[in-house]
Task: structure prediction
Amino acid sequence: MEFDSTTFPLRPAWIEIDLGRLRRNLEIIRADLPRSVELLAVVKDDAYGHGALDVARLAAAQGAWGYGLSTLEEAMALRDGGVRAPLLLLGERQEAELPWCVRNDLTVCLNDARTIPHLVKLAAKFNRCVPVHVKVHTGMSRYGARWDETLPLVERVCSEKSLRLDGLMTHLAQSDELDKSFANLQISRFNEVVEGMAKRGLTVRFKHVCNSGGFLDLPQAHFDMVRVGILLYGIFPSSVCRRLAGIEPVMSVKARIAGIQELKAGEVVGYGMRYTAPSRRRIAVLPIGYGDGFPRVRNQGCALLRGRRAPIVGGIAMDALMVDITDIPDAGMWDEAVLMGRQGAEEITVHELARLKNSVSYDVLTSWRLRLRRKPVNGPPAPGPSGAKAAEAK
Ligand SMILES: *Cc1c(COP(=O)(O)O)cnc(C)c1O
Result:
């Protein structure tokens, strides 16, 4: 069964994805890049919780060259959705995944020479030339061959006729802070590999280093492509990186008031009786909880109602949280509340929620669970079989 919101009631707690803002963010980022630099839209983890297929379709229309993903499932979902653009699988693949990658034209990162014979065999089996991006570890100590050991790996790739060196890449451990010394060290190590290749006459189509922070603050490291994730979704990776005017958050989290309680002084709220009303209080119940990804806090944080802040009282439950609406007397049943995003002149930012859970914006965006349905707004109606069927039925 498909829970299409035109025919099936939307739960009174949901996520809005503002496709208009997403389109504008993509335009602004693309316009800020020199023409010669390609944009790889990073859509791993379902586009940081925004819906990878919707984001990929929009990014293609705005001139993205391809997409960055983490898992084979993520890449296959885009291929199944009709995305034909290059898909770069970040990270490392197990041997069993490689036939799927080759057959479906997924591009892998090469971190290690051990993968080469497997790819060569698969290239012969499927009768095609297999593109690879060699990953250089320049200081992050995650994936990649050490910068001072990369050249032999590059030479081996180039010596295999059935492999094609499409990319040389590295990843920065700190790109968005004021202190760029470690980023600059990583860039100089990367440049050593680039110079070593030039000396040996080895060429590569795309050299790429920058994530969102590097795109904003390290133009000297843009090379041929930038891999932008969080900035597409309207979130700056840090409070000190360069601002780009017009970038706006794409995701909002909303719920409707599903209950109202009038409390007398001394009465308590929620599991563990963590809040005691100091006086007569009016409490609203919002049907969203930690089971939806809301941080499990107590007596902390707010929701927006009628453009004003209503403080959370008591502890967050799996499916509900309670807010004090004593000072918002016009709030009533099924009124729309905002848990993340803007309402009137007030805003609860992703950073405010990150502080509540002692974490970072990336974690907040990707922690919202799938049982909160994503409702696209300000975009063209989604194409697809459900829309066509609904039209036929009329
Ligand atoms: C996630 C990721 C990115 C994107 O990072 P943002 O900070 O979200 O722009 C780029 N490159 C690699 C290798 C990544 O894993």
Summary: Residues 42, 44, 90, 171, 211-212, 227-231, 237 surround pyridoxal-5'-phosphate (CB under 6 Å). The chain has two domains: 19-234+382-393, 251-348. Residues 384-394 have pLDDT under 50 and may be disordered.
